[in-house]
Amino acid sequence: MRNSRRASRVVTFAAAGVVLACTVLTATTSSAAPSSGAAADPHCRPAHVHDAGSVSARLERVPDQKQYSLRQLRRIDRRLDRAVAQARSSGASSRGRSGLVLRIPVHAHVIDGDHANGPSLRAVRGQIDVLNAAFGGGQSRVNASTHFRFYLASFDRSRNQRWYTASLFDASDKQLRRRLHEGGPEALNLYFSAPHSPRADSVVLGWSTVPWRAERQPRLDGVTVHQESLRGGDLRRYNRGDTTVHEVGHWLGLFHTFEGGCSAGNDRVDDTAAEAQPSLTCEVGRDTCDADGLDPVRNFMNYSFDSCMNMFTPGQVSRMTDNWLAYRPP
Ligand SMILES: [Zn+2]
User: Fold this and answer.
1) CB count in 10 Å sphere of residue 158
2) pLDDT digits (tens, 9 = 90+) for 60-111
3) Is residue 264 part of a domain?
């Protein structure tokens, strides 16, 4: 589909810096775990809506990626620590046979609409190149390298208009995932479509599941991205493929850098400075919390423009490695 709208996305954020896309909360999955206050709050209103043509934000949501309490975050940490210890004691490794890199199979599922086709095989291969550059430390001098690499294991194409516009774990999204999903928790299922947006002037860029739910809901596991967010797509400012990088970061267990706002522990990664709210453009030098360090505006797990985000930190690499060991070893 050729989409001429700008990627004006609507984001609301509470004082704690937690992103809640109020306008899509009714479409979220029943798998959403600990209850979100906003989900049940019909009065939830955008505190900060960006108009089309000014600045934009990533309208995307992860079922678990919401208003966690500190208690819930600590519980996630404890569970992760236990699972990592258990995995290590059983000899599990987060490295591949080569001892250097771990190659993650990607099952790519392109959804075509009745009158529009999704990306080509070549475009999907290009997206995997972007993933490998980002996870291989190649997007900037300060981009920490992970040992994860991605390769295309399968490619399929389905024509289904309801699937084509499915959005944020709605019934059609769950249906297509259940039908198309391949592999186990170690396989990345990537879906490319043109998700319906709840607002005429906004675009849903993507969404992801989290690793600690992969075992319980194996066929829902995976990442969906807007087809026009691929390199050269129509979503201006968001068409260098970094939405997929961001979503795969969630798939490997990362929170947003603004998770928890200025609270201690915020995104559970030590070397990403706390920030009060998402970066929606490229406000390098911004400092929204009293804690040490400038806001991680260029981090892939922020909401900045694709041209702005270019790094993971060593702490994030470590967190992804732990999540892999805990929840995704083959
Ligand atoms: Zn996100």
Assistant:
1) 16
2) 533 334 557 788 888 999 999 999 999 888 887 766 666 678 999 999 999 9
3) no
Q: How far is the CA of 65 from the centre of ligand 1 (A)?
A: 7
Task: Tell me, yes or no, whether 235 lies in a domain.
Answer: yes
- Would 273 be classed as within a structural domain? no
d(CA 302, CA 309) in angstroms, rounded, equals: 8
Q: At what angle do helices 242-251 and 121-135 cross, to 10 degrees?
A: 60
Do 212 and 19 touch, CB atoms closer than 8 A?
no
Active site residue 247: yes
Which residue, 252, 327, 251, 330, is CA-closest to 79? Answer: 327
| Residue 91 CA, ligand 1 centroid: distance in Å | 32
Which DSSP string do the residues of 218-235 spell out, in sequence order?
GGG-SEEEEGGGSTT-SS
Pick the catalytic residue from 247, 259, 275, 283: 247
CATH number at residue 247: 3.40.390
- Provide the whole-model pTM: 0.82
